[in-house]
């Protein structure tokens, strides 16, 4: 599995932790071992530009996902075809504000956002209440399982 992580901010980020959570999630979701994903941590101004360009919404957001080959989760031992899953862009300063409001660390918030972004790349969405429940329950389970195994 090819997982590239880049920190383009001044924030202190343990990049290996984000590569590890990505590999964990992709393994749990039975994604082909040759799948590729790229995670970028960016400043608020760049995130605001991406948010406006792609979603026509003002200001920075916490995470954005850019799917490439529309790969989907496999079933049990079945794997998907090879390909590029896509890119995830995370804004650490927005994540830090959300973490304070939620009462946990910025690192945990960014791990959650990484999982959230990965699930979007795998075709999950939260536009409808039933879909939101499925996605948010799954991301919570994946995060807690990952954290318990550290």
Describe this protein's structure.
Strand 1 (2-7), helix 1 (15-28) and strand 2 form a beta-alpha-beta unit. By secondary structure, this protein is of the alpha/beta class. Helices cover 49% and strands 16% of the residues. Helix 1 packs across helix 4, helix 3 crosses helix 4 (106-121) and helix 4 (106-121) packs across helix 5 (129-148). It has helices spanning 15-28, 44-55, 92-102, 106-121, 129-148; strands at 2-7, 36-41, 63-67, 84-90. It contains 5 helices and 4 strands. It has a single domain (2-148), classed as Metalloproteases ("zincins"), catalytic domain (Collagenase (Catalytic Domain)), CATH 3.40.390.30. A 4-stranded mixed beta sheet has the order 1-2-4-3, with helices on both faces.
Q: Could you list some keywords that capture this structure?
A:
4-stranded mixed β-sheet; alpha/beta; 150 residues; Collagenase (Catalytic Domain)
Tell me the total number of β-strands: 4
User: Beta-strand level of the residues, as a percent range?
Assistant: 15-25%
What structural class should be given to the helix and strand makeup? alpha/beta
Q: What's the SSE pattern?
A: EHEHEEHHH
Domain module tally: 1
């Amino acid at each position: 599995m090819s997982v590239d992580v880049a920190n383009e901010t001044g924030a202190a980020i343990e990049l290996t932790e984000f590569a590890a959570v990505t590999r964990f999630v992709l393994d749990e979701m039975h994604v082909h071992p040759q799948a590729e994903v790229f995670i970028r941590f960016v400043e608020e101004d760049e995130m605001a530009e991406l948010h406006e360009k792609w979603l026509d919404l003002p200001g920075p957001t916490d995470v954005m996902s850019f799917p490439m080959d529309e790969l989907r989760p496999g079933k049990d031992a079945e794997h998907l075809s090879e390909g590029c899953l896509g890119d995830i862009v995370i804004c650490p300063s927005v994540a830090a504000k959300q973490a304070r409001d939620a009462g946990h660390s910025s690192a945990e918030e960014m791990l959650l956002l990484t999982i959230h972004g990965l699930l979007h790349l795998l075709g999950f969405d939260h536009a409808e209440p039933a879909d939101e429940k499925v996605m948010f329950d799954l991301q919570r389970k994946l995060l807690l399982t990952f954290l318990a195994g550290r």
